[in-house]
Amino acid sequence: MDLKGKVAYITGGTKGIGYGVAESLLEAGMKVAISGRKLEDAQKAAKSLSNDADLVLGLSSDVTKFQDEKDAIKSIEEKWGQVDVVLANAGVGHFAPIDELEDDKWHQMIDTNLNGVYHTLKASVAALKQSKGYYITLASLAGTNFFPTAAGYNATKFGVVGFTQAAMLDLRQYDIKVSTIMPGSVASHFNDHTPSKDDAWKIQPEDIGQLVLDLLKMNPRTLPSKIEVRPTRPDKK
Length: 237
Prior knowledge:
The protein has 237 residues and is of the alpha/beta class. It has helices spanning 16-27, 39-49, 66-80, 103-131, 151-171, 205-217, and strands spanning 7-11, 31-36, 56-60, 85-88, 134-138, 177-183, 226-229. Strands 3-2-1-4-5-6-7 form a seven-stranded parallel sheet, sandwiched between helices. The model has no long low-confidence stretch (mean pLDDT 95).
């Protein structure tokens, strides 16, 4: 894919992985829309990415609401006339033994992590058919490796992986490429974490940005549909 002038939409793009990917795509010559639940946060992040309003757009969207995602895609098309790449990145995590996991936290993970990627794809699929574009979900190694205290989170990420792979088979007939990225430990703001120098051993957001660029630049005859990525070495205590 020739990236110059192409348009990307990133959910959960105000910080962390989404923000890091946005930086990488802008550096590659793309135009980027990012969304967050609060418009003020999205616009602030967009301005910090670029002072050129023709290159970046901050949008308010709660991915748990299908109408929000439809409105976001409409805003992008009204501004730039196309959508070429969509990264469904928004996600939340709550961790507790299943007998202690609170019901509202279970539903928040299902609504955001699983229903959210569905809403994002359903809202953008017509635009992606037109552009013969690329849809990418941000899953996790928790989508293939289960662990204690993560029944809810595992359920959603296993679901994201399965959803994305099935959607890939549905959509490749339209020349839409679909992939899921499954990172291990990332230095991000996930689960209220504040990145610091102690996170230097982890995958960095810009590393995921480079991975997304590599996918977009891949020869169109080849599709890496499921990508596991992890720190080269674990943290040494």
